[in-house]
Amino acid sequence: MDFKFDLLISSLPVLLKGAWVTLQMSVLGIVFGTLCGLILAIFLLSRKKILVIPTRVFINLIRGIPFIIQILIVYYSFSSFGFEIPAFASGVLAMSLNTAAFQAEIIRAGIESIPKGQNEAATALGISKLQSMTRIIIPQVFVKILPSITNELITLLKNSSLVSVIAVVDLTRVGQQIVSTTYSPAEIYLAVALLYLLMNLTISQGSKLLERKTAIYR
After folding, report:
1. For residue 46, how many other CB atoms are within 10 A of its CB?
2. Residue pLDDT, tens place only, 110-169
3. From the CA atom positions of the chain, what is the Rg in Å?
4. What residue ranges do the domains of the chain occupy?
5. What CA–CA distance (Å, rounded) separates 187 from 4?
6. CA–CA gap between residue 19 and residue 199 (Å, rounded)
7. What are phi and psi of 49, to 5 degrees?
8. Closest C-alpha to 23, from 178, 175, 199, 189
9. C-beta separation of 158 from 200 below 8 A
């Protein structure tokens, strides 16, 4: 059977629209997930049981439950209480919660790697704890954890293909729709795979560029 290059070319615009949805979900997921991960990391570092124990329970639950099940729980749990949330928003929420659990440990380790003397010096100079955290600690932590965050974003982008189970029209879903009408899975899924690869390579190169730009904080 001949490889249908013409089918690839004609399907590319629709596949690119799906890839854009995938990229949007992944970026939103990593942004919200990083913010939530930072809060969870602060809870872990607080040493207060009322904050640490629920945070640990949440992290262990997320790590122990398959991501596809997490998506289904988020999507259907709200509707069972009478709240209808669009599939796209449900996907972003599930991705954010998932990556937040993993990023919490990454950020916690990053913060703990900063010498405590820096906080002590900031206090001696009259700098508040909030200013010390936002202006001194966080920029250094960001540079230290950037490779790990990049890997998490790549993993999240690949895992985003699972949101197709709740009918989000992402890259994987678009590929499935095209295959159902053209009966040419080899060509379409190859194109889908190449688009995922291209997005991940772009993220990797962008991360390397950002690492060079922020090298001053090392």
Report:
1. 12
2. 888 888 777 667 777 777 777 777 777 777 888 888 888 899 989 999 999 999 999 899
3. 21
4. 5-217
5. 7
6. 9
7. -60, -35
8. 199
9. yes
Question: 3-state class of 68 per DSSP?
Answer: helix
- N-terminal to C-terminal alpha carbon distance within the chain: 55
Sequence-distant (≥ 6) Cβ neighbours of residue 148 within 8 angstroms:
106
In 3D, which of 147, 135, 143 has the Cα closest to residue 214? 143
> Is the Cβ–Cβ distance between 28 and 92 less than 8 Å?
yes
Rounded Cα–Cα distance for residues 108 and 191 (Å): 38
Q: What DSSP state is assigned to residue 4?
A: -
CATH 1.20.140.10 matches 5-217? no
* Residue entry with tokens 């809060």: 39
Q: How many CA atoms lie within 13 A of 26 on its CB side?
A: 26
Backbone angles phi, psi at 128, to 5 degrees: -70, 165
